[in-house]
Amino acid sequence: MKKKSGRNIWGFDGSFMSFCDKLFDVMILGFLWILCSLPLITVGASCTALYYAIVKCIKNHEGYVSRAFFHSFRQNLVPATILWVVFAGVSFLMQLNIGILMEKTEGYAGLFFIVLYAFVSVYAAIAACYAFPALSRYDMPAGWILKISLYMVGRYFLTSLMLVLILVCFGAFIWKVPLLILFAPGPMTFLMSEFLERVLGKHVQK
C-alpha cells in the first residue's frame, strides 16, 4: 500500500509550528496593548488596535501584527480616546455613587439605586466590549459607534452574556495570579472576537 503523503505536523511548515507562531503573535499583541495603555488615556486606542490586529493578522492571515497594531492605533486614536473617556467616566461616576450610597443610606431605596448604578456600570462595560471592535471595523464618528454599541448590548443578548463570562473568567484568573495580566489581553481578545465577529459582520457598511 502506498504511504499517505502530507505535511509533517512537527516540521517547520507544519500545523504545530503554525500554532506556535500564532500564539507568539497573540502574546506580542498583548504586550503591545499593555505598553500603549500605560498612559491610561490611550487604553481605548490600544483596545481598538489590539482587536484590529487580532482579526486582520491572526484570524485572516493578513500583514504583520506590529504594523497592523500601530496603524490602527494611530488611525483611531482620537475617536477611541473619546469613547474611552465616556465609558471610564460613566464607570467612575457609577462606582462613586455606589460607594456613597453604601456608606450613607439604608433600606430599600438605597438598595434600589445601588442595584441601578451597578446595572448601568455593567451595561457600560459590555457596551465598551462592542464599541472598540466596532471602531476597528466601521468608518463612523465616535458618537455613532457609541449608539450602535449601546444597541448591540441588548440586541445580541447571548453574545453580551458570553462577553461578560469571558471578562469574569479572565478577571478571576488575574485576581488569583496578577502576573497573568502580562499574558491575558491577547488570548482574551481572540476569544471575544469569536463571538464579536458574528455580530459585527451583520452590520458591515454596504
Low-confidence runs of at least 5 consecutive residues: 1-7
First-residue to last-residue Cα separation: 53 Å
What is the gyration radius calculated from CA atoms?
Answer: 20 Å
Strand content: under 5%
Give a verbal description of the structure.
This protein is globular. With 206 residues, the protein is mostly helical. The N terminus is likely disordered. Helix 1 runs antiparallel to helix 2, helix 2 packs across helix 5 and helix 7 runs antiparallel to helix 8. The longest helix is centred in the middle third of the chain and has 31 residues. It starts with 14 loop residues before the first helix and ends in a 6-residue tail after the last helix. It contains eight helices and no strands.
What does the secondary structure layout of this molecule look like, with pairings?
Layout: H1 15-37, H2 43-59, H3 65-75, H4 77-104, H5 107-137, H6 142-155, H7 157-176, H8 185-200
Brief account:
The protein is mainly α and 206 residues long. It contains 8 helices and no strands.
Observed structural traits:
single chain, 206 residues, mainly alpha, disordered N terminus
